[in-house]
Structure formats: C-alpha cells, structure tokens
Amino acid sequence: MSVLSKGSKAVILFALLVVSVAPASAQILGALPLFGAFAAHTPSASAPTDIRITGLGSGSSWTIIVLLTFLTLIPSLLLCMTPFARLLIVFHFLRQALGLQTTPTNQTLIGLSLVLTFFLMKPVGANLYQLSVEPLQAGQITAFQAIERGSAPVKEFMLHFVREKDVALFVELSKEPRPAKPSDLSMRVVAPAYILSELRTGFQIGTVLFLPFLAIDMIVASISTSVGMLQLPPVVISTPLKLLLFVMVDGWNLLVGSLMRSFQ
C-alpha cells in the first residue's frame, strides 16, 4: 500500500475526527504532545491572569501555524470526501428544473445536504472511531498509526463510488505505479478521483431530473403559442403545473430515497 506523507495523514485524520467523533476531539488533542503542553500551562480560576507558555520552541510554533492553516482547509476536505457534493448538486438542479430561484433557499439546501451526509457517513465514522480513536485514547497506538488506520474506512467508502477512468487519470498524472488492487491506491489518487466521479454522477442525475419538467415547459409553450396567448409568458403557466406535479407524486420523498439508495 502506498504510504501517505505525514502532512497528508495529519490533514485527513484531523478532518475525519472533527466530523465523526466531535465529542472525543478534546481527549484526542489532549493526548498529543503539542496540545498537552498547552493543557499543562492552562491557568486555573485562582491563578493570576498573566499567562506564559514555556517549553515551546520554534518548531512547535511552526506546528501551531500549520495546524491553524489546516483548520481553514477542513471544510473543503470534508465536503469533497463525503456525499455532500452530489447531494447539493442534485438539489440545485431540482430547484432550477422547477423554475424557482430562491425557494428552497441555499441555506435550506445546504442544511439538508449536511443532514443526509451525516446519515450516510455515520457507519464510516463509527468504524473509524473503533479502529483508530479508541486505541489512541487507550495508548495502544501512536497518533500516526491512528492516522493510518483512520484513513482506511474513508478510502474504502470512496473506492465504492469512483470510476475506473477517473482513477486511471490520476494514477497517470501522479506517476505512481499501477496498483495490484484498488486498496493499494494512495489517498492522493483516490480523493480527486472521487470528487470527479461525484461531480459527474451529480450532473447525470440532475440532467435526468430536468427531463420531465422540460417536457412540461415545451407542452405549455406550444399550447400557449398555438392559442395566441402571446402576452402571458409560458413560464407563468408551467411553474404552477410543475409544482403541482411534484407535490402530487411526493417528489421530495422519491428524490431523497433514490439518492440514499444510490450510496448503498
């Protein structure tokens, strides 16, 4: 199996722990030497307000800067290594197909996508917690061993949904040797291949979702033109019809159910 660089491992595990095991994050950070140094110098309620941190050299200072920089990248990593991208793309396609500009709002669609992403990633997070976080808390493995173990469930999840064509593209671009089996692929190859595959799948679903509503628009436009209703835009008539059809067939249940099944 390709060995991840230390920097890549740190980013991956830190992002996964934030999403999957947020309640245990404080204990994990306390177990690391860097954050243990901060905890040891945290003043109590009765201590003076003059705070001094000792024992941190220039190397530790650079480590703090790197970790704070990685914090800004965590949202992007989480969104690109989970089903969030596909869900959000499909929901935006649905809103455009219905002819609605601001309903549901962007905040509503993002919130729905996050809730569904948490629902889908819960088994992966539980597996990650069992394999890496619990042994780390018990002192059985080191932090980098936990990173190695924690990246495996996420990579296994992504490998289920990547296309062979996308994987081949990034294997070629990375100049890595051709792997004997999918599990030998490095996260450097799997992550961008997964993003590309999810974008393609999301656009495919959105295109199919557009077709019935496009047919309604064409029928309404042809009828209104044939009867001479040139003063009334066809979209004024077709939008209520599309909404009525979507509500009658219980569109949200059908769409969300189909999206959830596509990840099983």
Explain what this protein looks like in three dimensions:
Helices cover 73% and strands 0% of the residues. It has 264 residues and is an all-alpha fold. The radius of gyration is 25 Å and the shape is elongated. Residues 1-11 and 13-59 have low confidence and may be disordered.
Features:
264 residues, mainly alpha, 11 helices, 73% helix, elongated, disordered N terminus
SSE topology sketch:
Blueprint: H1 6-20, H2 25-31, H3 33-40, H4 58-80, H5 84-97, H6 106-137, H7 143-159, H8 164-174, H9 187-226, H10 234-248, H11 251-261
Q: How much of the sequence is in beta strands? A: under 5%
Quaternary form: single chain
Record field, number of beta strands: 0
Helices, by number, come to 11
The average pLDDT score comes to: 74
Shape: elongated
Please summarize what this structure is.
With 264 residues, this protein is mainly alpha-helical.
